[in-house]
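Encode chain A's predicted structure.
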Amino acid sequence: MTKPPKPKPLLQDADKPVRSRPRKPRDPTQPNLPLDPMPARIEPCLALLKSKPPKGDDWVYEIKWDGYRLSVHIEPRGIRILTRGGHDWTHRFPAIKLAAMWLPVGSAILDGEAVVLDEQGRSDFGRLQQSLGGRGGKKRSSDAIFMAFDLLYFDGHDLRNSELDMRRHLLEDLVPAGGEGDIRLSEEIEADGDQLLASACEHGLEGIIAKRRSAPYTSGRLGDWVKIKCVQSDSFVIVGYERSTVALAGIGRLLLAARKGKKLVYVGGVGTGFNERNASELREKLDGLVTSTPAAAVNRKGAIFVKPKLIAEIEYRAWTDDGKLRHASYKGLREVQDNATVYDLE
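Encoded structure for chain A:
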């Protein structure tokens, strides 16, 4: 007759705690690292506009991407994709969401830009807008990819107080350089700033970004990140338009304004850059905003004024002596959720 198995002591004595045996003693010199709570949202670090690249070994450079600033939150409950203004756009970027699910990390917050690339690999804001169905559209973009350029939270640790070099080192392990997926690394470029800017302009890029290696991640526009543009591109309020019998959708010219304190100041107009699709969408929105009260002082005969609800991204070459835009071209409407900054006349 076989004996019954001997009960395990832990099951026999309810007063003894149930613990597994450690494989080896913990090294007392190894600290117990506390876990940081994951932020629900982080205000982005913004780049300060400068005319020339900063000099010195403490500065590194990247290409300036022309798209929508996003943060990708990888959380235990799932993925969240937030706009610069804090709006949840997870449903609008399904390919980026799926790519984030496959990243080898338990929890993270990636900072970057959603872009659509043209045939030469350049970011195209107009194509991104079209892929999302235009301003106020509800389409999901399967063409947009996420160019990651910073890592703010990583597996339980808030990295914002760490230097950029350390954050980038961890990011490059997570999103390797040279990838072709829907989340890609915005690579740092070791080069002279002036030469890199010249090369970027020669290849038709919008410009470059310079970042201070030793700086922590600080929300706002404080100067640790600097943008230098080949072609000026800024956001302006649409305050009216002029009709045309020959132009697309009858829009001969948009009338634009910039901010000066709490007021809007007329800075000229734009009559190029429209295509059949964005012109018809724009005309429909403008017709719904017509008003008899101009939001800015505009002395244009026959102008049709609209409420200052629409913000347009405008590319231009320079300013005239009387404060008007020169060689302006329409690129598209900014989304309200993008929290775009209207050009400020100092």
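DSSP finds six helices and 18 strands in the chain.
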